[in-house]
Every structure is written in structure tokens, then in C-alpha cells.
Amino acid sequence: MSKLETFNRALLDCQDLAYTLAYYLLGSEKEAAAALQSAVENTFRDRDGKTDSMHCLLLRRVLSACRELISGAKPQGDEFHRHLQILPFECRAVVVLVDVLGLDYCETARVMGRDQDHVRRDLSQARVGLRDIGTLSERRSS
Question: 27 near 81, Cβ under 8 Å?
């Protein structure tokens, strides 16, 4: 199997998760698709020599692409996405990775390139921020 075929197989296993992350962070299908495309291209180009899983590498690249697209952008999407976009980027990313996508703290820390204590602090801050505006409890019950 060629490197491209191996890459494509690994990509199929995690592209939905990566798109969902981008969509929650950006609140726009068009921007989420652009972020995913950029992340896939960067992951393919830089994959050699990496020890992290494709899953982790792709999610990390999606975060990076979203961070670039967000700077200066006004909040988009439904009410939940607009509330989510009020949070600092790191908190927003952690709450999506843990509470929406279901990653554990260890995996989230690897994706974020941070230690688990930072992940826990950011998640706590994000949950408090979302709870203050009533968003988190509404999202979990639906």
C-alpha cells in the first residue's frame, strides 16, 4: 500500500471528528470545511517522522487552522456557537474536545500540546463561562 493510500485510510477514520471540531469552533460549515482542508494538506505534508497518531495530528492541525481563521472574525452560527465563540480559544477548544467530541483529558492534552492540568483548568473555565450564560446545560440535555 502506498503512503497516500495509507494516509487516506487513516484520514477516513478521523475526518468526521476533525470536521465536527472545526464546525463547533467556527460556527460555519464553509469555514469548517476550509479549516479541515488546510489541516489535511498540512498533515499530509508534515506526517513523516511524527510519532503521534493521525487522529491527534489532524485534530492539532484543525485547531491551528481554526485559530488562524478566527482572528478578527465576528461570531457566527446558532446561539450555542455564538456563546461558545465568546470564550478564549483554548477554553473553547477544550470544551469541544471533551464535552462535545468525548475525548478524555489525556488525549485532549496531546491534541492541545498541553499538560492535563492545563486542560482541566481550561475546561473548568469554559464550563463556568457557558453555565453563566445557560448554554452548557441546554446542550447536554439535547
Answer: yes
Cβ-based burial of 116 (10 A; exposed 0-12, middle 13-18, buried ≥19): middle
124-127, long-range: CB within 8 Å, 24+ apart, which pairs? 125/87, 125/88, 125/91, 126/87, 126/91, 126/92, 126/94, 126/95, 127/95, 127/99
Number of domains in the chain: 1
Cell numbers representing residue 18 in the block: 476533525
User: How do residues 19-34 score in pLDDT, each as one tens digit?
Assistant: 999 999 998 899 999 9
pTM: 0.80
Domain of residue 52: give its range.
3-141
Closest CA to 129 of 90, 102, 101: 90
Instruction: Say which CATH number the domain at 44 has.
Output: 1.20.140.160
Residues of the chain with pLDDT under 50: 137, 140-142
